[in-house]
């Protein structure tokens, strides 16, 4: 199963790379979405600076866009991006020893773990997407979902406040959950 997944990923990357060579901006955007977090984590691990890590990733993607047309060999996109990022990091460490050393010292201070910050950002983004989707629901479904999320009201209390039956609350909520699940499944498919 793992080999099959890697093969699928390689084929997808190959197709994206071919489109990128043709200057396809959508393919570039998909590559960026797919590998940005991976490269950022790699850069942050070694540079210990959010700004330097962001600069590294930006540099790598700019170089990818600029140099893709000149690449005439078969490449593994993930490995290629990894190597570009690693080389940039090594150059940063060589050229900015003092700054990187200071970043390491500062990293020893007890700040929230980077993974915790990333998780919080991801959760915030998920909630934003959830609320955007809820905004698209029909008025009653939207109101029921918002009451479920923002209050501790029971189905009966929601029904009483909205002047509808408990059965209507339950059925609207169930239908809303199906719509929301479908929406998030679509997003998941886009990100894979």
Automatic annotation (TrEMBL):
Record has Transcription regulation as a keyword: yes
- Keyword terms of this UniProt record: Sigma factor, Transcription, Transcription regulation
Under the heading Pfam families, the entry gives:
Sigma70_r2, Sigma70_r4_2
Task: Tell me if Protein transport is a UniProt keyword of this record.
Answer: no
Annotated Gene Ontology MF terms? DNA binding; sigma factor activity
RNA polymerase sigma factor 70 region 4 type domain boundaries: 128-178
Q: Which residues form the RNA polymerase sigma-70 region domain?
A: 31-97
Q: Which InterPro entries match?
A: RNA_pol_sigma-70-like, RNA_pol_sigma-70_dom, RNA_pol_sigma70_bacteroid, RNA_pol_sigma70_r2, RNA_pol_sigma70_r4_t2, RNA_pol_sigma_r2, RNA_pol_sigma_r3/r4-like, WH-like_DNA-bd_sf
User: An example of a Gene Ontology BP annotation on this entry?
Assistant: DNA-templated transcription initiation
Family according to the record: Belongs to the sigma-70 factor family. ECF subfamily.
NCBIfam families for the chain: Sig70_bacteroi1, sigma70-ECF
UniProt-recorded name of the protein: RNA polymerase sigma-70 factor
